[in-house]
Amino acid sequence: ENSTGDIDRALELYRDACEGGEPYACGHLGALRMEGRLLTRDPTEAAHLFGRACTGGEPMACLQLGLMYLDGNGVHTDPGRGVALLEQTCIAGAIDGCVALGQTYALGQGVPRDLARASALFQRACKDGSSAGCTALDHIDGGGTDAISDEHGR
Q1: Is the separation of the CB atoms in 95 and 128 below 8 Å?
Q2: Residue 59: CB partners within 8 Å, gap ≥ 6?
Q3: Are the beta carbons of 122 and 135 closer than 8 angstroms?
Q4: Are 27 and 61 spatial neighbours (Cβ–Cβ below 8 Å)?
Q5: CA 26, CA 64: separation in Å to the nearest integer?
Q6: Number of C-beta neighbours around residue 146 at 10 A
Q7: Could you read off the pLDDT of 22-81 as tens digits, one per residue?
Q8: Are 29 and 14 in contact (CB under 8 A)?
Q9: What letter would DSSP give residue 93?
Q10: What is the pTM of this model?
């Protein structure tokens, strides 16, 4: 069988697993839909898949869905829901969620600007090994937020 057949079979297995309630599979399909790799780019469908995965306890899907709510990408903009999902992700121990949440506080996106809260979140992420958290912490400690951005284009 050729590689296209292998890819189609893999996608079929992911779809079956997602339909069967496997949150990781739903999250992976959501990422493929969001990125437009192997599947047609469809942010609305990606949000649906991330939602299923997040409800099933997949923290990275919650992170992606939270960013989508902050940006209004594939869903109606809902900063409160976006921040709540990022908080959930950070609490679950996903350091990328802590960095993203710190960025929302540093930039005042969906929440009042709070550099002390941002710094605490970046410090937690940095301590847990996130280079993005360490870099953002350096910028906060240096007194500026101009260089604080995220890899999600916000």
Answers
A1: yes
A2: 88, 89, 92, 93, 94, 97
A3: no
A4: yes
A5: 12
A6: 6
A7: 999 999 999 999 999 889 999 999 999 999 999 999 999 999 999 999 999 999 999 999
A8: yes
A9: T
A10: 0.86
